Amino acid sequence: MFAGLGEDDSDRRQLDDHMNTPLNTSAPAAQASTGNIATGSTGADQAPPRTSIWTPSNISAIVILALSSLWLAWWFFERADYVHVNDARVAANMVSISSRIPGLVTDLHITEGQAIGANQLLATIDERDIRLKLKALEARLATEKGEFVRQQSQLALTERQIETAITAQKSQLAAAVAAAREAEIMETQASHDVNRATTLRKDRLIADEQWEQRSLSQQTATQLYQRRLAEVQAASAEVLRAEAARAQLRVLENELTIILLRQDQLDVDRQQLLKTLADHTINSPIAGVIDETFINPGEYVYPGQRILMLHNPAELWIKANVKETEIRHISVNSPVLIAVDAWPEKTFYGRIERIGEAATSQFALLPSPNPSGNFTKITQRLEVRIGIDDPQGLLKPGMMVELQIRAD
Q: Where are the domains of the chain?
């Protein structure tokens, strides 16, 4: 009946029997000895009980060995078909919003975790000082515009006056020229009359009084002609003087140009103030989610100081560093199985979008040269970017993930 028990059970049962036997066993022992002598046999001649190999301990060992073999086979299969990465992270473009101007934050229009749209108002900085400067500048600009209009009217009036004076002087010049021509004709006619009278006087055909009268007429005509010529010269001089007044027009035009330049400078200053005024209202450059705020309303900020940080949840990817010894097994568009620590019951899928062109050690702030000659070879890693299929938006930047990249 003990044939089915193992050796350990027989030994344990024999040990229990021995421990339960009373110490005063001389009579039974003598009888047993007598019986043994009578039968002529000893304990050494009795054969031990046979044991089976299908004991529970052996069966357990066989099951464990089989399961271990299956697990090792599965492990080798996985290692042959997949590249495993267990230190990857979910990444995103983390946008840091900073102030471009100094000032007091009057209002913060968002809270952490809030979804926002593009160009949505985030924060407001006190803008009273800049509005006063802008108002003063606009007043100066309006004054310059009024001065420009006045100078334009003055230029137009002066131009009309000068043109009228020139026209009048040219008219006087034309009249003087006409009078001079008339006097020239009269002087020429008087000269002919004198010449004819002189000939007739020699022939005693006219009296001396007539000759003298014609000679006097000639002198009068000559003087009149000379006076008319002088009047022509005077009128020409007046015309030149009137035309010279046009230089005053150029002076006025230069003043208009200077006013325009001042207006342009004031307009540039106004545009700069408007730009600074726009910087007092901080808007979101993208649609996304507010990750963290670094200031509170009432705090004073400086140029470049961070106000908040956000990211676009629709633009996430996985940043993984793959060993250089395994990089040859993957390529762009290779499928990827993604296990996320935060969602262990879900499996995400993705594809490789980009494989880095340099090892991550090349981007270290502190390079590691080897001038001493002591060298320890370390397996380098290359950055791999993996696109994620996450329609439910469960993944967040910074989450740890494990990857199984299908080997080529």
A: 80-94+311-406, 96-125+279-309, 130-276
Of the candidates 408, 397, 407, the one whose C-alpha atom is nearest the C-alpha of residue 319 is: 397
* 339 closest CA partner among 406, 407, 385, 399: 399
Question: Two tokens at 328?
Answer: 């040859």
* Calpha distance 152→130 (Å, rounded): 33
User: What would the mean pLDDT of 75-94 be, rounded to a whole number?
Assistant: 81
- Residue 345's H or E segment, with its range, is strand 343-359
| Rounded (10°) angle between helices 246-279 and 208-244 | 10
The pTM of this model reads 0.59
Q: Selecting from 3.30.70.920, 2.60.200.30, 3.20.20.70, 2.40.30.170, what CATH number does the domain 80-94+311-406 have?
A: 2.40.30.170
CB 125 within 8 A of CB 101: yes
**Strand extents, DSSP E, 191-299:** 281-283, 288-293
> Rounded to an integer, what distance in angstroms lies between the CA atom of residue 102 and that of residue 304?
9
Query: Which of 90, 82, 91 minimizes the C-alpha distance to 337?
Result: 82
Sign of the alpha-carbon torsion through 157, 162, 164, 165 = positive
- The CATH number assigned to the domain with range 96-125+279-309 reads 2.40.50.100
The CATH homologous superfamily for domain 130-276 is Helix Hairpins (1.10.287.620)
Model confidence over 111-145: pLDDT tens digits? 999 999 999 999 999 999 999 999 999 999 999 99
- In terms of Cβ atoms closer than 10 Å to its own Cβ (0-12, 13-18, 19+), residue 406 is middle
